[in-house]
Structure formats: C-alpha cells, structure tokens
C-alpha cells in the first residue's frame, strides 16, 4: 500500500537590497548595510525520488531542479523568480575545462555525518576534475588568467573580462570547491590542501595556455599562486597580487572564515548559505552587494551540501598551512633569483588584511606598489569598475570604485 501525503508548505522571505554609499548618511541604510524589504511567499518542497535520466553534466548545477541532488543537504528552491537571473547568464558564458587527475581509489564519497553515499555534486565527475571557466578575447592575444580569492568565485571578475578582451585573452575560473567547478567530498579524490591547489593550478594553466601567461590573484589564494609561480617563472610574464597576505599579521584567517574549521559548529555554519556566502563576503569591506549579485555567490550553497563541506576543508587547510605559505611567499618575492615582474595592488579599507608593513615589504623587495586608500580590494567588490590603473606594460587593470585622486603609485 502506498500512502501519499500532502506536501508541506513553508514560507520563505525575499530580500531586495540596494547598494548604498557608506559615507552619505550616518543611518543604517546609508551606512553600507542592506536595505531590505521582506515579502512573504509560499515555498513548496516536493518529496520525490531523483530521476536517473538526467545525463547532462551541467544538471548538477540546476538549483531550480524539482528534487534534491541526493546528498541529504540540498535544497529544491532558492530562486526569487522564474525569469532570467545573473547566475544563469554567467553560467551560459562559461565552459568546463578538464584538468588535474582525480586521486584516491574511486570509492563513492559518503557524508561525514550520516555515512550515506552522497549525490553527484559531491562526487568526482570522472578521472579528471572539471573547472568552470569563462574566457574573453582573441586566443592569439597575450593571456591573462584572473584568479579569485577565498571564499569568492570567478563571477567577481565579470566586469574585468570584457575590458581586457579588447587586447588580451582573459580567463577567469572557479577554484575546485567553488562556484560551478567540481566540489568532491574531502578524502575522496581531493583534500583541499594548499599543496594540492598548487599542483592543480599547474594542471589548469597547462590546459588553457600553451604560451606565457600573466596571473592576477586576490587575497588568501595569493600564496598558492606565488608558490606555483616560483616553480614556473619561465611560464609567466607578470604577476599582480591584489591584497595578498605578506606579513606575520596576515598569517591567520579572520574569524569569519576560521569559524568554518571548527568541529561541528563549522559543519553547521557551512550549510547556512547566508553565513557561508553573504556574511563571509560582506564582512571584508564597507560596501554591500546587490541582491542579484549576492544570489550568485549564494547559489552553490543552496544547490548542494558539497560546497559547505569543501568550505570546511579549505578553512582547515588554511588554518594549518597559511602561516608557512605566507613565510614562503615573502621569501620567494624577496629572493634575488625572482625574475617575474610583480605588482602589489592594495586597497587600504580591507578589514581582513591590514596595510601595516606592506609598503616596507614592497620597497625592500623592489616590487611596485599601487595604493588605493579608499578601497577594500576584497572578494566581492574588487570588480565594480570605474577607473583604470596602469600596471607594468601588461594591461590596464580595473579595480573597485575609485577615482584617480584615490590612487597612489609607489
């Protein structure tokens, strides 16, 4: 006998936000916080079995699918309308690049809490990992690879790509564990250690570029890229570091990110899309995001629990390895054998990485420093572009809401 129950109806709230100037008024609304209006609407969850006929590899990322992805942590919902949204439009611009072989025994991943076999989103997609990548410009032009920070996505470079495409072959990608790229369960093919990321980056660069490239990287992933660059100087034209951790004070993750490394509490918070995405992105600077953009960053955490589990693993790896990698970064960039043209671009309103000792480091290492006193070059905001900054003979890099008077080049 089969019993069919009436699907339960719960209520969600839609928040509409606008980006407000942090200096125009002392009020909360005009102080850089979200201006929100809650709208109550029914959200129905359907309890049904996943269909096995969906063979499209892109189906893993359809947040609006009627059923769970099957890992026990997914949500069948999370959209605000049936119309086009920035996440869908961004996904259409990209493609999957296969790079870096899957490690392990090939055993199916199981969730760390219940021990149940997880859905496709938490499994390795094959023998080689898939990286979501968006390219712009003629492939015959010099290649510039744009690398997002922790915990962001390639989407943060969406406004840089069309600008660079005029003279360069620009590529932005999601790291493994982020955005639309593969997010295997830790210990099932990828453990999210920094050394693995160095090797994985090498594989990706070799896959997308045969000639020399220039790298632009932001934040806490900078030491990974510097480590890669130290092993492949012959492959690089230029290296541009956006607010990289360079000093002993930078060697610890902020509490907003380190919380995800905590036992149990980290697992809980990483499955909360607002805490894993919104809070992590908006706490690093004084600006707020538009709701449409926030939904793009939030979407992976709404789609599957695999994003949260990857966030736990990366946070733990950073907490364990970041200090040594920051020390290595300093040593590499100060080494007399370092030949890659390097520029440090620093937004001084970054709440996570302070400016102390950065100027002295650049002087001692003889690297160009570009200061942006009124700007936080942080994960979500570095690409709301208004002003171009000449960086070496490489390119004109567009960074955060600044005017020429706010730029200081040392």
Automatic annotation (TrEMBL):
Keyword tags: Hydrolase
A Pfam short name: Abhydrolase_1
Residue ranges of every copy of the AB hydrolase-1 domain listed in the record: 142-277
InterPro entries: AB_hydrolase_1, AB_hydrolase_fold, Haloalkane_dehalogenase
Gene3D superfamilies: alpha/beta hydrolase
Transmembrane segments: none
Any one GO molecular-function label of the UniProt entry: epoxide hydrolase activity
PANTHER family given in the database record: AB HYDROLASE-1 DOMAIN-CONTAINING PROTEIN, HYDROLASE-RELATED
Protein name (database record): AB hydrolase-1 domain-containing protein
């Amino acid at each position: 006998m089969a019993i069919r129950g009436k699907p339960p109806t719960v209520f969600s709230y839609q928040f509409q936000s606008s980006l407000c100037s942090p200096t125009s008024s002392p009020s909360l609304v005009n102080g850089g916080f979200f201006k929100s209006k809650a709208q109550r609407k029914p959200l129905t969850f359907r309890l049904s079995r996943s269909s096995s006929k969906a063979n499209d590899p892109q189906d893993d990322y359809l947040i609006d699918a009627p059923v769970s992805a099957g890992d026990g942590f997914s949500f069948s919902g999370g959209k605000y309308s049936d119309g086009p949204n920035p996440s869908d439009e961004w996904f259409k611009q990209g493609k999957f690049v296969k790079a870096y072989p899957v490690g392990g025994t090939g055993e199916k991943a199981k969730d760390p809490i219940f021990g149940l076999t997880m859905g496709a989103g938490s499994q390795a997609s094959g023998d080689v990992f898939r990286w979501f990548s968006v390219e712009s410009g003629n492939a015959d032009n010099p290649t510039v690879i744009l690398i997002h920070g922790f915990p962001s996505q390639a989407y943060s470079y969406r406004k840089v790509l069309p600008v660079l495409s005029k003279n360069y072959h620009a590529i932005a990608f999601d790291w493994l564990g982020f955005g639309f790229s593969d997010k295997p369960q830790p210990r099932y093919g990828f453990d999210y250690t920094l050394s693995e990321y160095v090797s994985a980056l090498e594989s990706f660069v070799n896959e997308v570029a045969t000639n020399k490239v220039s790298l632009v990287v932001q934040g806490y992933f900078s030491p990974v890229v510097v480590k890669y660059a130290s092993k492949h100087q012959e492959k690089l034209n230029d290296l541009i570091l956006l607010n990289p951790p360079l000093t002993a004070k930078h060697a610890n993750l902020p509490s907003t990110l380190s919380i995800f490394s905590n036992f149990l509490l980290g697992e809980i918070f990483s499955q909360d899309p607002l805490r894993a995405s919104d809070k992590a992105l908006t706490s690093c600077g004084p600006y707020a995001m538009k709701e449409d953009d926030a939904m793009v960053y939030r979407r992976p955490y709404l789609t599957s629990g695999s994003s949260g589990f990857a966030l736990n693993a990366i946070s733990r790896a950073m907490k364990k390895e970041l200090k040594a990698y920051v020390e290595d970064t300093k040593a590499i960039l100060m080494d007399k054998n370092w030949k890659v043209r390097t520029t440090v671009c620093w937004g001084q309103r970054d709440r996570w990485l302070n400016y102390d000792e950065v100027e002295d480091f650049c002087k001692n290492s003889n690297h160009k420093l570009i200061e942006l006193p009124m700007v936080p070059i942080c994960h979500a905001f570095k690409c709301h572009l208004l002003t171009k900054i000449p960086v070496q003979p490489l390119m004109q890099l567009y960074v955060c809401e600044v005017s020429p008077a706010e730029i200081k080049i040392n």
